[in-house]
Design a protein that fits this description.
With 121 residues, the protein is an all-alpha fold. The chain is built from six helices and no strands. Helix 1 crosses helix 2 and helix 1 packs across helix 3.
Length: 121
């Protein structure tokens, strides 16, 4: 059992360590982005370099992905709590949401077209 647990423990420690280092670096460098975003970028580059997700990282990511909706519940509760502000700035909020959604769809379609072209070759 300990042999199965050790790689997962190292993966968890690695993820926390990466976030801690990136948060510290962003604070030190005074970058205008979140340390979590920098950590995700570094993790993505590392996964590209490794050629996939290592089994130990997959062991901690898979259960979290099954419960991903739990991360959204506080945001939904906050929307209900801020109903007055949302009503006051509703039009501006809708415009921003529409533009952000459109950009997300366009970038996702662009990436999908690149990946599907590569897959056919």
């Amino acid at each position: 059992m300990m042999r199965r647990f050790a790689p997962v423990a190292w993966a968890v420690l690695g993820m926390f360590g990466l976030q801690w280092l990136c948060n510290g670096f962003v604070a030190w460098a005074q970058w205008p982005i979140s340390g979590s975003i920098l950590g995700l970028l570094i993790l993505w580059l590392a996964l590209l370099w490794w050629g996939g997700v290592p089994p130990s990282l997959s062991a901690i990511a898979d259960p979290l992905q099954r419960h991903l909706m739990l991360w959204i519940i506080p945001s939904v509760a906050a929307i209900g709590d801020q109903a007055g502000v949302i009503a006051q700035h509703g039009l501006a909020l809708m415009v921003v949401i529409a533009i952000a959604t459109l950009l997300t769809v366009l970038v996702s379609a662009w990436v999908l077209s690149i990946l599907s072209t590569r897959a056919r070759q």
